[in-house]
Amino acid sequence: MSPPNAPQFPPPDPVRSPNTVDSPNPARSQERGANSYRGQSTTLVTKHAAEDSQANADLPASSGRGKTQAPATGGGGIQVIDRLVALLEALARNGGEASLKVLAAETGLHPSTAFRILASAAENGLIERGDGGLYGFGARLTAWAALRQGETDIRDLARPVMEWLRDQVEETINLTLREGDEVIYVERATPHRMMRVEQVIGSRAPLHVTAVGKLLLASGGEAAVRDYAARTGLPAYTEHTLTRVGDLWRQASQALTAGYAFDNEEAEIGVGCIGVLIRDPAGNPLAGLSISAPRERRRDEWTDLIQEAARRIEERLARAH
After folding, report:
1. Which of 107, 116, 140, 261 has an alpha carbon 20 to 30 Å from 268's alpha carbon atom?
2. What is this structure's pTM?
């Protein structure tokens, strides 16, 4: 899991794996495992490379209604958690968006207390504050809920469509979720090619170096992008990484308008990606879908195919809802 205060991600030390094809910037060895990975997750592998173990875990989505007033004492529980739950329930009662004044009034909390709890929750991705000062549910809660729609795992819903898209482009297809200031790779469909790009399932990457991550950032508005830049410092992974907040916001907002984004060797030299968002029936970002390929093989005309794939997954989500 990402630490609360969005750590700086130093560029990974180059370690040559026996399964890695020579490239300008060799990727980290897969033997390090998904949970220890803290940087680029891209590896160019041969067809007969050993598959990495999939460190998947179902994250439960929580919901509930009960308390209106936050308890004054722990009452056998942990006071700050009880108060956070009360704030989340108040937010849900207001349609998922409310001001500090409304949330404090409905929970009986002093505004300064409510503000501190909401600020800490925002740092952990549980709450987001929009440009107008209204609070809403954060990306991490959305990501947890995205793992299961009712009793259906989003990976199960997405996998057939991912395999269809893989067969169309003959490149690796990834499904990602947001956790804090990172994306986490939760599913993939790999082609039967001698050389391909693979993302280790369970690995993470900073938002600003991935195609899907830029779309997720832009969906929160310019203030969210600037907050992210202030927290992380926009560290460079290659000479192509966007390290200035103005450039990041401009490119990310244009990508959101277009409906797709590119990663032009911003995380790894020699690797290019195309990403789109997968949205829930209410239109909120749930997950990301991307094509990863050696840069010289990536085709811009694949944008139509990946958008069609996202639409098909959204239709399956709506039917399962």
Report:
1. 140
2. 0.62
